[in-house]
Design goal:
With 358 residues, the chain is an alpha+beta fold. It contains 11 helices and 11 strands. Strands 1, 2, 4, 5 and 6 form a 5-stranded mixed β-sheet that branches. A 4-stranded antiparallel β-sheet has the order 7-8-3-9, sandwiched between helices. Strand 4 and strand 5 form a beta hairpin. The longest helix has 22 residues. It is globular and about 65 Å long. InterPro entries: DNA/RNA_pol_sf, RT_dom.
Length: 358
């Protein structure tokens, strides 16, 4: 319990109080958890969530609701049991090689950097053959909210999660309620018929299982796909043979899985010494408006451009780190050496080290 630090709904006991009382309530919580697993039932009182809006981008329009990320504040005991279940579920999926190998966030010693390395390596491989590569960054930002519970249960069953374990997950998903909170205002609580909570410890793993069929569909059409954790940005790059048919298959899977593409934030990059003529006739209408190529795009915190140059990534970061260190140099003489190192690592080195392998 002491390792969990998160927000809680206004109607719940604050997590810091429960942390301090952990030695007293741990035994009772264990009994509740064991009963929950034995009867494959998730406690009803832990299914209510309060939704807070998290501003995603500093320079985005704050009046546009698309620039806010809904975060579910869940009861603290619910997060404890979710963490225990998630640990066992992740171990089971890894032991049975059920998780998609291209999902960097679900594998040990993998990160955003390994996902970016895989993407750029595949692009360079295509370029070495004298071909052009089209990279499409699909944005499925509302994915957590639209996940079909029936489809998720089928995916879990195919992954080997059955019987009482599957019944417990079904109970975890069903009967949930939520309300939106913009202090001092609160909406009325409403029932949730689809989706998984954004702030849940278990949701990222469930989402990874849900997305496995998409990777299988892409590979069956000889498309490369790379993703990271529950970041819903997927990377596909391919030759243009039968492109419409391939993307139509992707569109069909997304429709059947209740996923909708955010075409406003989906971007296309074209790589190659001889730029290809962009023809959007292959883009299925069911995926939204046709795309227009751009010369650079941000992917997993790293700016990629059509020439695979990192100038647009390095220059602003170098300038930012220089300004940060210059401003803090005046106070460095007043703080211990170890604290200086910590500040430098947190505010400068961590930014400079991002994407070193690229």
């Amino acid at each position: 319990m002491n390792t969990i630090n998160s927000g809680t709904p206004s109607h719940s006991c604050p997590h810091h109080i429960l942390n301090k009382a952990s030695s007293v309530i741990a035994l009772q919580l264990r009994k509740i958890f064991n009963s929950s697993f034995e009867y494959a039932t998730f406690p009803e009182s832990w299914k209510h969530a309060e939704i807070n809006a998290l501003y995603k981008k500093n320079k985005a329009d704050p009046k546009d609701l698309k620039n806010f990320q809904p975060i579910s504040l869940l009861p603290f005991p619910a997060k404890v049991i979710e963490k225990a279940v998630n640990r066992q579920l992740t171990c089971f999926l890894k032991e049975n090689c059920t998780l998609d190998p291209s999902q960097s966030g679900s594998h040990r010693n993998h990160s955003t950097e390994t996902a970016l390395n895989a993407a750029t390596n595949d692009i360079r491989t295509i370029l070495d053959k004298g071909e052009t590569a089209d990279l499409i960054l699909l944005d499925l930002s509302p994915a957590f909210n639209t996940i079909c519970h029936h489809t998720l249960r089928s995916s879990l069953s195919n992954a080997g999660i059955r019987d009482r374990a599957l019944d417990w997950v079904t109970s975890f998903l069903n009967g949930r309620t939520q309300r939106v909170c913009l202090p001092p205002f609160h909406s009325k609580a409403t029932k949730i018929i689809c989706g998984i909570p954004q702030g849940s410890s278990l949701s990222p793993t469930l989402f990874n299982v849900y997305m496995v069929p998409l990777a299988n569909t892409a590979r069956s059409y000889k498309l490369n796909i790379i993703s990271y954790a529950y970041d819903t940005q997927l990377i596909l790059f391919f030759a243009k043979t039968n492109l419409h048919g391939r993307m139509k298959a992707i569109a069909k899977w997304m429709k059947n899985s209740c996923l909708k593409l955010n075409s406003d934030k989906t971007e296309v990059l074209i790589f190659g010494s001889t730029p290809s003529v962009w023809d959007d006739s292959w883009w299925p209408a069911t995926l939204g408006a046709a795309l227009t190529p751009t010369d650079h795009a941000r992917n997993l915190g790293f700016i990629l451009n059509s020439s695979l140059s990192i100038t647009q990534q390095v220059n602003p970061i170098s300038s930012s780190c220089f300004n940060t260190l210059h401003m803090r140099r005046k106070i460095y003489k007043w703080i211990p050496t170890e604290t200086r190192r910590t500040v430098t690592q947190a505010l400068a080195s961590s930014k400079l080290d991002n994407g070193n392998a690229l």
